[in-house]
Design goal:
This protein is α/β, with parallel strands linked by helices. The chain has one domain: Rossmann fold, CATH 3.40.50.150. It has eight helices and seven strands; from the N terminus they run αααβαβαβαβαβαββ. Strands 3-2-1-4-5-7-6 form a seven-stranded mixed sheet, sandwiched between helices. β4, α7 and β5 form a beta-alpha-beta unit. Bound molecules: calcium ion (CA). The site of calcium ion (CA) has 6 residues, from loops. Calcium ion binds next to loops.
Amino acid sequence: MSRKTLDLSEALSGYLQQVQPELSDIERRMLEETAQLPGAGMQIAPEQASLLSVLAASIGAVHTLEVGVFTGLSTLAVARALPAHGRVVAMDIDAATTERARAYWEAAGVADRIELHIAPALETLDGLLAAGKQDRFDFAFIDADKRNYWHYFERCLALLRPGGLIAVDNVLWHGKVADKNENDATTAAIRDFNARLREDTRVLHAVVPVGDGLTLAVKRPTSSTTRDAQ
Ligand code: CA
């Protein structure tokens, strides 16, 4: 499951939570209530939420994308790091879990920074591209159906400004990516995503073993820049 970083002992995981930024009452409630839901493992770990906040703040993000909302912890983490006029364009297909998310965002006072689209994310992303929003976004977080990861990544990359950052969750997929006996379509899709990204000269990337594995990719200033030129 992805609610704690892989391969940390229970003791060290507990200590990590003690030294992380303190959770707000809303975040604590999100974690407790979401843990009771089917699909609870889809929630990001608290240490990932703090990391997303820091990443968004560190690049001065104002306009961001989120592909896959679930009950809204990652959306809240990014929204709270934005200036008051900042916006998260959040995408999900689940009306029930996002209704919970909306309630949490309201309670946390960030709902006015979040524009939620209940539709297949590829449609929403294609709509933004058709509306000429290329190079307009600063940050994107991708955490939805893994078989579409590459399609989401391509569209988010086009929508990001040079220097913008994409974070992609579950790239270590509970360790299944490293097990040759695991060849289901989702595991294969994540392996394919990881392999393609490694060869992609349009971004600088790092695969960070936090939570279930988080890839960070920065859009290079020009697509013609090569890795060797750095
Ligand atoms: Ca995830």
